[in-house]
Amino acid sequence: MNVELFWGLPVVLYLFLAGVGAGALTVSSSVLLRGGGGPSGTHVDIARYGAFLAPLPIIIGCGLLVFELGSFQAGNWLKWLNLYKVINLSPMSIGTWLLTFCIFVSLAYAYTFLANPPGLGKDGALRLRRPLAWVSVPLGAGVAVYTGVLLGAMPSRPFWNSPILALLFLMSALSTGVAVILLARALLHPAKDEPGDDGRAFHESGYLLTATDTVFIGIEMIVVFLFIMFAYLTVGDVRYAISVILAGGDLATLFWLGFVVIGLVLPAVVELKYIIPRLLHHEEFSPPRGIEILVPIVVLVGGFMLRYIVVVAGQITGPVGI
Amino acid sequence: MTENSQRPVVNRRKFLETSAATGVAAAATLASAPVGAAATPTPRKRYGMLIDIRRCYGVHACSVACKAENGVPLGQTRSWVEYIEKGTYPNVTRSFLPRLCNHCEKPNCVSVCPTGATWKRKEDGIVVVDDDICIGCKYCVHACPYDARYPNPVTGTVDKCDFCIHRVSQGLEPACVEACPSRARIFGDLNDPESEISKAIAQNPVTVLRPEKGTQPNVFYIAADHTDERAPTVPNQYVRVDTHRRQLERR
After folding, report:
1. How high is the ipTM of this complex?
2. Which of A102, A134, A240, B205 is most buried, judging by how many CB atoms fall within 10 Å of its CB?
3. Which residue of A has its CA nearest to B99?
């Protein structure tokens, strides 16, 4: 393929990182609102991890986007602030504002999880936490969906121009968001072998996260199937575009091996192996630590692969005919 | 989008008044059949171009003139000529397809711009980019179905053909039109039925590129070969497209 890629690695990383952050934020605030909140909530650890993990990837992703701008590369370092002078119906304009609000809200939300936040106090933090979580759920989901809408808005890029791409990105964002919480939990939480209630609560929150991740991956598989099937069963632009990830296409190996097998099937199978005994026989959910670390990493790799393949595939294909 | 902004704001009372007035005007029109443009306020122009492929022999004078006129950076193109070869010897043909921004009626590039740096001018329909506003996000580069836009590495903004707006506003023709030795290009106002381009479009079968994208291009072609490498006229036909630009393949 002799085509220039105008959007490169920074955009790929941005789509991935914003997805991870938005997913972690949504999962964290959902868990909090679902009953994990308060000082004694069972899954408050999940909410805390998610809250602390969410802002940084989003901020780094947005920073990378600025590096990709032509104006920044030409030396106009602050010209991107022009984005804030208008708001129009361009997905990127709406996304800019959405991301900005999301960054501020996620930072505020994370702030309320500090042990004793200065200026707020313990009680003030607790009071603020739930309202911020209510705002965080739609903001996180909005950012995740927006990354798909951004690409999907253009008929000139048939690979991207699919209404289901945004859903695919949302599912991937949620699943990688859960994965990053699982990973942090497995790496940082040494209390796995704690006896008694603490240990059980720890295992239970691990089960909750892993089961959620499996559900997200399952939905993601359905969405991927629909994405490919509807593209394959049409003619013209979209049929041509989808052929880059089908057998014989330039990105086929990367897509099927890197994303579908490594990013979806493998983690789903491993997660199911540990979930099913808990689900059917009420056995204790306690996968080995290595698995607890490896599965989220694989999910994250899959999430990155998805963004990489989609961004590249959209740019090396175009409308058929002239 | 442009239509919306042109549509006057009408409330109910005003609507009734106008419709009454229109009724009277219509009656007057019927009474005196030939009515000139005297009643209409300053007519809006709609600049367009007609490229007669029968006259084009691929000298690239337009490409060169464009680069010189607009200071297009090395390796980039606002205007370029594609060669399309098809068939198997001895039944072969090579035709040329000069390309430029289509200044579409419904420009996709405009609707995705997050900063409002690019817009379609109401007075003449030229799609322009404001270098002072554009941040170079390249969203419009993807949105254009004709690959007419490129990121300008010197200015850091996105650049494209603007029908040589600096010449056109002085009453001159775009550089590519003037440079074309075979007079394959006609530039003019599509809203003026007496202009050379309007007459030529009315008198010839014309086509536009990728009409299925719904952008309603304002660059028209006579006898263009719409064969693409990915869409041969007949199955298994040999087709080779040479774009003569850094973007080696159409997309």
Report:
1. 0.91
2. A102
3. A322
